[in-house]
Specification:
The structure holds two protein chains of two kinds. Chain A is mainly alpha-helical. Chain A has 17 helices and no strands. In chain A, helix 4 runs parallel beside helix 14. In chain B, about 60% of the residues lie in helices and about 0% in strands. Chains A and B meet through helix 6 and helix 7 of A and helix 2 of B.
């Protein structure tokens, strides 16, 4: 007998549709919730914005060379560019750069397959991109702070609020990842220091950015309904500028400390000296950097009131206390390097530059709170801001060089990155020192301000020229680092753990697969890969264990 | 009724319970709520600060010559409250897998949101202070005739 019927089980089995191929090209980027993709988008976009901010800073710097008037640009344009350089550097540059790095790296560090809210992170990036573009468009329409077109000023404020919301959402995703998706055995005490610094810094960001957003909301309403309270477009920057002053300025540097703290022990080939103390110091620095209370006073006529916090006990205390955690961390890193077998890898060089600049910025901040010196409204504060921002940028660059195998599947070209970092650090340092000395001659921080109190005009102009040249060097150095990111290295493959890393991200391939890990082992210390490589697991690693030769 | 030995035998082959799910939503919501609370606190703080400055200067609150556009503000507040209801409705619908009502609720929320801050001139903003011509002229508070008296 011929059997013509198929067996029952074959007939009844449901036909499975062929799986649709994964999207490629633009669709893979636009529709992606993959944290590595989103993080790289944040990083690339913020670097472009940073280069633009650097060029703007150079323009403003050269306009300061002749204090008798403006040579190239109109005074109104210079005033707007003066605001743009800080707004773009911090809100379009440094913060999204750190968020992008964290979005890509933190899940790997804590042993998670992705961030807590991948779609929210992706939405945050696209909102950041759109609102950042509108912010710049509003400036182009004469609508930045001090702008002449009221509708464009309102557009700027609305876009700026959207930008703040985007940054806050992305931050929530990163912080939640660290708090809830850590690998088995990874207590908060064992969390890698960059991830820990994102918890600290991100929490303070979430306490600070909404305050700025609320103030901007009031500014928007004031612009829309009569400009009776907050001074129209001339009052906008007063409501933002407190972010660029200490102590709030320091909040951008908190994750930078975490990056340095992750890089140093790997290149010292030993554990981080006093890891728990380092966590405490990063936490203390984050707590001190909450500065929403130190805003310029509000007034009904749009003029700034004398600030009651200026030279007050709390402000002075914060200015001096901020030195303690940074100095403590610098000491711990020195001890780590001193007790290890140091190899001067590129990430370590960048991290050391970053630590020195941030330390210098915090030390300059301590001088700012001394009433007798009276430099808070001078370019001394500009130099301090430059040191902190440039130091944070260098730390982020150190992170990019360190985690490039995980981010891009390649190592960055050493020579170009080292050259760029050296030029950037030297340029920013020279510009900051020149502005600082000019501040001691009472040069006001704001452009187009009265020069009545300025002594030694010729000397100040010379210092401004030196600062402008330093800024040019810093921009060129930054351009070299960006070039290194996109330049081909000639090496097709990179090792999974090229640095002999200590933390979980080095336990997976470079670049990581979808889902990051096939299986995550139980974590028993803050440096699990170091333990596996050097220590006798049964004996347990000692705090100051040195790597064997 | 006590479980019989047969019932116990059936459950003996069941897979182990999944480990407790990380409280991702709870922590994320707490962080977002904290950020939202900071918005409210900041608004209250700004109001208190401005009021205190005026009173400390010997004036009364609100200052005499200030005209507060109450209508847009009040309408905006009521509209926001209404949108809170519609968003809660949307969440309820989603939980009950009621797609039609979820769409309706979200649509109403978007409509109310658009009504809160309309891009076109409203009755309250048509005063001399907020007219488009004046807003252009008074983009800078240093412009003649634009400084608040």
């Amino acid at each position: 007998m011929t059997v013509t019927e198929a067996p029952r089980d074959v007939v009844e089995a449901p036909a499975r549709p062929a799986p649709s191929p994964p999207p490629t090209g633009l669709a893979a980027v636009v529709g992606s919730g993959d944290p590595r993709t989103v993080g790289r988008l944040f990083i690339g976009t913020s670097l472009l914005f940073l280069l633009m901010a650097g060029v703007v800073a150079v323009l403003v710097g050269f306009e300061r060379v002749d204090l008798s008037g403006f040579e190239v640009l109109d005074s109104d344009i210079v005033r707007q560019l003066f605001t743009l350089q800080s707004i773009a550097a911090v809100f379009l540059g440094v913060l999204p750069l750190l968020i992008g790095l964290a979005t890509a790296v933190v899940p790997l560090q804590v042993g998670a397959s992705t961030v807590a809210f991948p779609r929210a992170s992706a939405a945050a990036y696209w909102t950041f991109l759109a609102s950042g573009g509108v912010v710049l468009a509003a400036y182009a329409l004469d609508g930045g702070p001090f702008g002449g077109d009221a509708e464009a000023v309102s557009l700027f404020v609305a876009a700026f609020i959207a930008l703040l919301v985007a940054l806050a959402v992305a931050t929530v995703s990163v912080v939640t990842t660290v708090l809830t998706l850590r690998a088995p055995g990874m207590t908060l005490r064992r969390t890698p220091l960059f991830s820990w610094s994102m918890v600290v810094g991100g929490t303070v960001w979430l306490l600070t950015l909404p305050v700025l957003a609320a103030v901007m909301l009031l500014v928007y309403l004031d612009l829309q309904y009569g400009q009776q309270f907050l001074g129209g477009s001339d009052g906008v920057y007063d409501r933002i500028a407190w972010v660029f002053w200490q102590p709030t300025l320091y909040v951008v540097a908190v994750p930078a400390l975490g990056i340095i703290a992750d890089v140093v022990p790997v290149f010292a080939r030993r554990r981080h000296h006093r890891h728990a103390v380092a966590m405490g110091l990063i936490g203390l620095f984050g707590a001190l950097s909450f500065g929403a209370w130190a805003q310029i006073g509000f007034s009904v006529d749009g003029q700034s009131n004398p600030t009651d916090w200026l030279y007050d006990g709390v402000w002075i205390a914060v200015g001096f206390l901020a030195i303690v955690p940074v100095a403590g961390l610098l000491g711990l890193w020195a001890a780590t390097l001193a007790g290890g077998r140091v190899r001067m890898g590129t990430p370590l060089i960048l991290a050391l530059f970053a630590g020195l600049l941030i330390g210098g910025g915090v030390a300059a901040g301590a001088v700012t709170v001394i009433e007798e010196v009276d430099v808070v409204t001078t370019t001394w504060a500009s130099g301090q801001e430059l040191l902190v921002v440039a130091g944070t940028l260098l730390a982020a660059a150190a992170g990019l060089a360190f985690w490039a195998p995980k981010l891009y599947g390649k190592l960055l070209p050493d020579g170009l990155v080292r050259l760029g970092a050296t030029v950037l650090a030297l340029g920013a340092g020279v510009a900051a020192v020149a502005y600082g000395i000019a501040g001691l001659y009472d040069q006001p921080r704001a452009v187009a301000a009265s020069l009545d109190g300025v002594s030694e005009i010729d000397t100040v102009e010379t210092l401004n020229l030196v600062a402008a040249v330093g800024l040019v060097a810093a921009v060129v150095g930054g351009l070299a680092i960006v070039t290194a990111l996109v330049a081909p290295t000639g090496r097709r493959t990179v090792a999974d753990d090229p640095w002999d890393g200590h933390t979980l991200e080095w336990a997976t391939s470079s670049p990581p697969p979808v889902g990051n890990f096939a299986a995550v082992p139980e974590v028993t210390s803050e440096a699990p890969l170091y333990d596996a490589r050097y220590s006798d697991a049964s004996a347990g690693p000692a705090e100051s264990t040195e790597a064997p030769a | 009724m006590a479980a019989s030995s047969a019932d116990i035998e059936v459950f003996a082959g069941a897979p182990e319970a999944e480990p407790p799910r990380p409280r991702v939503l709870l922590v994320g919501s707490a962080l977002a709520s904290g950020a939202a609370a900071m918005v409210v606190l900041a608004l209250v703080a700004v109001y208190a600060r401005m009021r205190a400055d005026v009173i400390a200067g010997g004036d009364r609150w609100l200052p005499e010559d200030v005209t507060v556009q109450l209508s847009p503000g009040n309408m905006g507040m009521v509209t926001l409250l209404m949108s809170a209801v519609t968003v809660a409705w949307a969440v309820y619908s989603l939980r009950n897998d009621d797609r039609v009502h979820a769409y309706l609720a979200f649509g109403l929320s978007i409509l109310l949101g658009a009504a809160t801050s309309p891009p076109w001139p409203t009755a309250g903003s048509s005063s001399a202070w907020a007219s488009p011509a004046r807003r252009r002229r008074c983009s800078s508070s240093r412009s003649p005739g634009c400084t608040w008296p």
